[in-house]
Design goal:
The chain has 395 residues and is α/β, with parallel strands linked by helices. It contains 13 helices and 8 strands.
């Protein structure tokens, strides 16, 4: 095999995997979903009881607005429980939540930090609803969101429902084009997966589960929102995307913060996938396993092969001038991404073209960083990190 052929194959393998994960797989879903429509259910005559579980750590700037939005829900108030679990907050979070007790909001305080999943496990003891809705302190649910999440449970095969995230934020927010576009793309892919039976990951910002599924213990270091559809599938349930259940998600304030959030989230995702690895078996779990491999595993494996692609371009550069240009562009892209990630907020925002490039490149580098943490002691890391700080939504 010639040097050119070796270099070409070294590039083709990671690029092909990445293109399949982000382009080929969604197109395959789209083709298979032609003619299929999401099942629509009528509103039940008697709505089931619902518990909203909200985990907070030092969220004094956002928690009031979030609770105001929840209390504006059109869900029957006599069927709605709102429980805020404070993960050892040291600011005014608890005090603000207590101001809502007269309106039915309940507070559970953990005296020591345990992390989000540990707090969710603790909260299960006080959740009374037949359905549990999980959300975050910085998220705003539209008034009809809870009803939208609950209606599909009329289908006894549905165990988890996931809402539709809409990324919002001011003009000064970094990563404007990248984050907004990615969230919209992800919601489109989930809607296609849902039409073909089941999604393989729920929105951490807004999802619901049958109470019996939610009460099942999840190890503290895992990601409960990712674990939910995997655990549901193990128990014989489907998980579906609900386009009408809209939640507003504030954008990250910088590409650097978004990079660290992605790396942290993917580490927990890898741990969760490892823990529930049985559902990766296509002979036992069929299309669900193939979706999981395509949507998650291929996306997370492709960046690990980027050094191989770099070596391939370097090999081609020995004989081909265009490859030298390509190698230079790759290095320039990495330099721009590094600069965007390290850009201090106080120096103002960067052009959208730069933030878009920085967002795309740094997102894939975050995957490599996550794998490094996974292989070098992620299981021994504490189960909590400082929550990603986002600008409060003013709606």
């Amino acid at each position: 095999m010639s040097l050119t052929q070796i270099g070409a194959w070294a590039i083709a393998i990671p690029v092909g995997m990445l293109l399949y994960a982000y382009v080929g797989y969604p197109l395959l879903l789209w083709v298979l979903a032609i003619g299929r429509r999401e099942t629509r259910h009528e509103d039940p005559e008697d709505w089931p009881s619902v518990s909203v579980s909200l985990i907070a750590h030092n969220e004094e700037e956002s928690i009031g607005g979030t609770l105001d939005a929840l209390l504006q829900s059109d869900y029957p108030p006599d069927k709605l429980q709102i429980l805020v679990t404070s993960d050892a907050s040291t600011d005014r979070t608890d005090e603000i939540v207590r101001e809502y007790e007269s309106r039915g909001v309940e507070l559970l305080r953990a005296e020591s930090r345990g992390g989000k999943t540990a707090a969710e496990n603790e909260a299960t003891k006080l959740l009374r609803g037949e359905v549990v809705v999980n959300t975050d302190a910085t998220i705003r649910l539209r008034p009809s969101c809870i009803k939208g999440l609950v209606v599909p449970f009329a289908d006894p095969t549905v165990g988890v429902t996931s809402g539709r995230d809409i990324s919002v934020g001011g003009e000064g927010t970094a990563a404007l084009a990248g984050e907004t576009g990615y969230v919209g793309y992800e919601m489109w892919v989930r809607s296609l997966e849902s039409r073909l039976g089941s999604i393989i990951g729920a929105s951490g910002c807004c999802y619901a589960m049958r109470a019996d599924l939610h009460r099942m213990h999840v190890p503290e270091i895992l990601s409960r929102d990712f674990a939910a559809p995997l655990k549901a599938r193990e128990q014989g349930y489907r998980s579906v995307h609900v386009g009408d259940a809209v939640c507003l998600v504030p954008r990250s304030v910088s590409v650097g913060i978004e990079y660290e959030r992605k790396a942290r989230t993917i580490v927990r995702g890898l741990l969760t996938l490892s823990y529930y690895r049985v559902v990766l078996n296509p002979f036992r779990y069929g299309g669900f396993a193939l979706k999981l491999i395509s949507h998650k595993l291929c996306r997370w494996l492709a960046p690990l092969l980027f050094p191989l692609a770099g070596a391939g371009i370097a090999l081609l550069a020995v004989e081909h001038p265009w490859a030298r240009v390509a190698l230079g562009l790759c290095l320039a892209g990495l330099a721009v991404a590094w600069a965007v990630v390290r850009w201090p907020d106080e120096r103002g925002t960067l052009p959208n073209a730069m933030t878009l490039l920085g967002f795309a490149v740094s997102s894939n580098i975050a995957v490599i960083a996550a794998w490094a943490r996974f292989f070098t002691g992620a299981r021994s890391m504490p189960a909590f990190w400082e929550p990603t700080r986002r600008e409060p939504i003013d709606v």
